[in-house]
Model the fold of this input.
Amino acid sequence: MFDALFADPKLRTAWDTTRSRATQCRMRLWIDADDLHRIPWELLNNGTAALAASAVTPFSRYLPTEHAWGHAVAARPIRVLAAISNPKDIEVQHNLLSLDEVVERAILKDAFSSLDAREILLDFLDAPITLEWIEKVLREGYHSFHYVGHGMFNALKGQAALYLQDKDGNTHIVRDADLAYMLARQGVQPRLAVLAACQSAARAAAGTFLGLAPQLIAAGVPAVVAMQDKIATKTARRFSLAFYQDLIAHGTVDQAVNAARSILLSAERPDAAVPVLFMRLKDGQLWRDAEESGVMPQAIAAHRAALREQLAREARALGRDVGLYPGGGRENLIRTLHAAQRLLVLREPGSGKTVALERLAVVPFF
Done:
């Protein structure tokens, strides 16, 4: 498959040159034809490594949209909303096996049990799983949406649908467009959607998520992880654990999917290529890591708060309501800088930091 993709000598030369010059080469497949999405590109292997499982080639299927990206999430904890849809009449009315909700919940709970709740937090959406209920709870500020349930895909119409529930808990089929329109109406869409075929799902249901993912990207969701086939319980558990552990460490979604897939390959899971990442990001960055986001050890946070209070008590005005110079004023600060040659400025926006630093910049220290 790799040789076929890089059959053009110019393209192969460009690939080899890029790989030789860069420590990491992000690989984004821009696929226009829907039929080509059915090819398991995640099996690409250059002879030495699986590209979709290597740390040096973060891999995704790229879907460009007109939506502006905005910025990576800095807030903590990252909030994940999980919805497990298991309509009461799914077997009788639609000839589909009911989900084992206990198993499905356990997979996700196991994945999150070893993660710091101050960093990432998992909530389950209570049944019935209606579209209205999903919309209402997502508006509470969830960063990620994780769906488990049945679906169907009409190849002739190119239309996907999910088996959600009505208010009585029975089946309510929701078309891909309705779900996408709901997400598009959100003020801020979830940064990530994970669409997992349930353990009893047939192959056709898994195909639903391949058809649905581009719709969600078009609606404004930056990244979607979908399953392109049935996935075993053990594989799903290992993938979820490895994926979320890696993602919370650095916030780069294509790198996290590759890392999780590598774990599956090491465990000799035959369905390691099932998870597929669609995204519209150029760098894969969904959220910042803990240090950049302001999450810090309690002792450091307490010290910073005490420093702020001290500055507020000892400051004297500098043309603003709040000054920046500690006791002794500007001259004392200059003498301190002569010795330390370092300055840490911690104040709110508009408190005069820039003015103070501009004035200090003209003072000769040596």
